[in-house]
Amino acid sequence: MLIEESFKDVPTKAGGDMRVFLFHPTVPNYPKAKFPGVVVFSEIYQVTGPVARFARQIAGHGYIVAAPSSYHEFTGPEALAYDGPGTDKGNDWKVAKEVSAYDEDAELSTTLLLSLPTCNGRVGATGMCLGGHLAYRCALDSRISAAVCYFATDIHSHSLGKGKQDDSLQRAKDIKGELVMIFGKKDNHVPPEGRDLIRKTLHDAGITFSFYEVAWAQHAFIRDELSKGRYDPGITKICFEMLLEVFNRTLRSDLGPRAGGEMEVEDRRKLEAKAQGAPQQTNGHSHDTSKPTAVFKPKQGRTHTLSIALPSSIVANCQTHDLKTSLIGTIARALAVFSVDEIVLFNDTLPSDTAHVSPHAASDAAAGYTGFSDPHDFMAHLLSYLETPPYLRRHLFPMHPNLRTAGTLPSLDIPSHLKAHEYCPFREGVTVSAAEEGGTVVECGLQGRVIIPDQVEAGTRVTLRLPGWLAERGVRKGEVVEAEAVRPETPREEGGYYWGYSVRTTSGLAGVFTEAEVEGGYDVSVGTSERGEEVRALLEKSGGEGGLGKGWKHLVVVFGGVAGLEKALDADEDLKGTGVRDVSEVFDHWVNLVPGQGSRTIRTEEAVWLGLMGMRGVVEDRERHR
């Protein structure tokens, strides 16, 4: 596309006119073409050559680009030099300007784009360095559909603007559009712990976002001028493709009707012949690429439950924090995929057992980290965190060493993890405060103000039944919604929704059964061991003699640790005191999940996936006999 460049000086309340450089695409013969808008925020040097080239590149793909000059309170629109004095001025002005003035610049730039008759009404934002942070703050405006932030500085340290006390992370939940954060792993302006904090905050706030960290990239790796050896054209190209992907998907173009004749080309030559277009080829087949599981469709209420139990010692055998976290994430994903309602963690270690001890265990424990000192607590902590809807996590889970890399784990993406625009008759929330109208205010990820009539202590997680009118038009910002608090089991029992899992801990294997929280206890229990019968045999007689039956209410599948369930019996004095000599006697069924396994061992996290897949037929058979 061809690019027309201009500028507009916009009056501001903060002081001085803000010059906004405009880069406008044009399509010959389409005078009424409409395009999305993109605000490009510059680094601390204002709109330099690299920033202008970046803006032109975006405009060339069909976007009207507005690049505001950030320091209109202090100087003119001219770019600062990439040298010591220019850097000092830019850094000084960055923290002399009020955060509210930065926000005003973003609001005015967005309004300018939307006021153009050639804008299609959709706007995104992007920027680098300081501009990456400003693009993030621009996304706090609900008019912004998407923002791509390159190596955004000062978000993690809350140090933008006068007083160095910005609220960018605290306001993450105000972001309604999609967000892309791009950093280099060698970025010394935003350290690893800072990037982790940003990622975790966005994750906890339930934001739709992508987070990229390029292995060898440094700060300012997209700047193609005076970058001190940091410019990486290959990575820059890939990151720009990611920018185009999100903008093309969220903003889109609208060319309008075609008008006019043949395009005029400078120094063009007449063609001797016209090319003949080849007909489209087709093999006659069409493929359905829809995703039926994208929207959960409940069938009917479900009163029966599926539980699993396993020893927390599997975490103690992992030698690093990352391995511990990854293992728990793998198990949580299995629970979600197979709609497990409860996980029970028990202890199978003997006093004489020794697990791997980190050289930092003492200092970690003093800081509250329990990955080595208390695997029971660590595993329950992470499993509970992952099951909690992302928009509630910051309310229910304070910053904690156990969770420092939890943001890297894959999402469970279960029906209870709803986004703000999604409707479901039920929704999870957390009580915030007493309502002036009476009752309790509940935060549940909606734009409106949700109130329940009950008086509930602040910080309590509650399950809500929402009014049906929300399905018709949604909730408007600030609107009051009256909801009803229900039992956590209600979405499953009444609506048939899979509503996540509960986490229970017990001291030993016996406690799995004696402390069961389901009504009447487990009526069917399955232990897993390579010394058991083939799971296939159990499935074949599922409804017959010796089988599980078709009307079971509460099924529990128990997995062993490194040494199997036999060790759990040795570690449980209460169980041995009942006269049990063979652990298989504890269970109704004793099964081998993988007869003829190729590996000498099957890890517990692998056994969970294999076991739940092996028992899937039993669960589906029960589903048919509700």
UniProtKB/TrEMBL annotation:
GO terms for molecular function: hydrolase activity. This is Dienelactone hydrolase domain-containing protein. SUPFAM superfamilies: alpha/beta knot (SSF75217), alpha/beta-Hydrolases (SSF53474), Nucleic acid-binding proteins (SSF50249). Residues 31-249 form the Dienelactone hydrolase domain. Belongs to the class IV-like SAM-binding methyltransferase superfamily. InterPro entries: AB_hydrolase_fold, Alpha/beta_knot_MTases, Dienelactn_hydro, NA-bd_OB-fold, Put_MeTrfase-C9orf114-like, tRNA_m1G_MTases_N. It holds the Pfam family Methyltrn_RNA_3. It comes from Sphaceloma murrayae. It comes from the Eukaryota. Residues 257-296 are annotated as: Disordered.
